Amino acid sequence: MMTSKSYSQISVHSRAVAGFTLVELMIALVLGLLVVAGVGSVFLANQNAYRSNVALGEVQEGARTSFEFLAREIRAAGANPCGTANVDSVLNATGDPMLDNNTPIQGWDDATTVAGLPSSGAGQPVAAGAIRLASARNTGLAIDSMDGPQASVKLQNKTTAIDKGDVLMLCDVDKATMFQVTNFNSKETLVHNKGNSEKPGNQTKCLNHPVPQVPAGGSCNTFSPTSYLALPTNYIWYIGANDAGGRSLFRFGRGQSTTSAAAEMVRGVWGMTVRYHEQGGNAFVTAANVGNWENVDAVRFALTVQSGGTQPGAAAGTDNQPLQRVFTSTVALRNRLNVN
Q1: d(C-alpha 249, C-alpha 39), whole Å
Q2: Is 336 exposed, middle or buried (0-12, 13-18, 19+ CB in 10 A)?
Q3: Which of 339, 325, 237 has its CA nearest to residue 279?
Q4: Furthest-apart CA atoms within the chain: distance in Å
Q5: Which stretches are transmembrane (predicted)?
């Protein structure tokens, strides 16, 4: 006998998947946007702070480097390691003020009026102050002997720091004479013959003081055995256009070479004003109002330095514009300080 069993049917109803309402989606979207905006503002603030710090650091570095260059040159103006102001030259006159004029200091209120500076391209001056500074530096080269009748000086040690055509200064405690090397033999013997085998050439082979021609039957005087060589320098410092469309601190003039050239020293320096103090005066005056350049004993200069000089577009202030600051310093000429 078969027993039938009845089974209850279990009905399974699938529950519809619940979703977000439109209001919930809008609220989530707004919250997400707020979070993104907050993160974005923090990112932008940090980026601006970083760029401002870079700009400020660049401006300070440019000012520090410029002041170091200028202060060193101003302090040394008129100095020479010979310890004497009795300086003469046997060089032939050329009309080049950077070679013929060795007045320790001279200035201009507008560099565009200075003759000889580049007239175009990198190094072309802008309307800002300019200052010329001349001095001499010790080369560390002492002489071994100097043959009076001959146009030659033998060094104590050989060197490769000197070449034919260089302009040097031979000096002792009593005198100093500028001359041009017409030959350099065996890296130890300087020849300074008369003539123009080198430009501008020497008026005479004698390095006497003052500079005379050798009298008939006479000979050149010699310098003392303790004499040594110095390097005369003569440079104009000014603000000029650079090759990146900005401005820089430039130096124009000569060291050992007889040819003057412009060299970019510090990028990002946009302006310079220079004022001068004369001995006995009570104020700093413009170059046009200096009575006697031989009496100038101190210089006050202000530099305008702008960011973006080394990394254009990477360094800016909080307004996303280049940061610009003015720095001022006063420097005394060591050789003209009144010690009384």
Answers
A1: 42
A2: middle
A3: 339
A4: 165
A5: 21-44
- Distance in angstroms between the alpha carbons of the first and the last residue of the chain: 145
Those residues with Cβ within 8 angstroms of residue 209's Cβ, 6 or more apart along the chain or in another chain: 86, 88, 174, 175, 177, 221
Round to whole Å and give the CA distance between 274 and 303: 9
pLDDT (tens digit per residue) in 93-113: 888 888 888 889 999 999 999
Paired strand residues for 183:
191
Residue 175: other Cβ atoms inside 10 A: 21
Considering the entire predicted model, what is its pTM?
0.81
Residue-wise pLDDT for 269-328, tens only, equals 999 999 999 998 899 999 999 999 999 999 999 999 998 755 555 556 556 678 889 999
ω before 322 within 30° of 0 (cis)? no
Q: What's at 222, amino acid-wise?
A: T
Tokens (6 digits) for 102: 């060795």
Count other Cβ atoms within 10 Å, centred on residue 225.
12
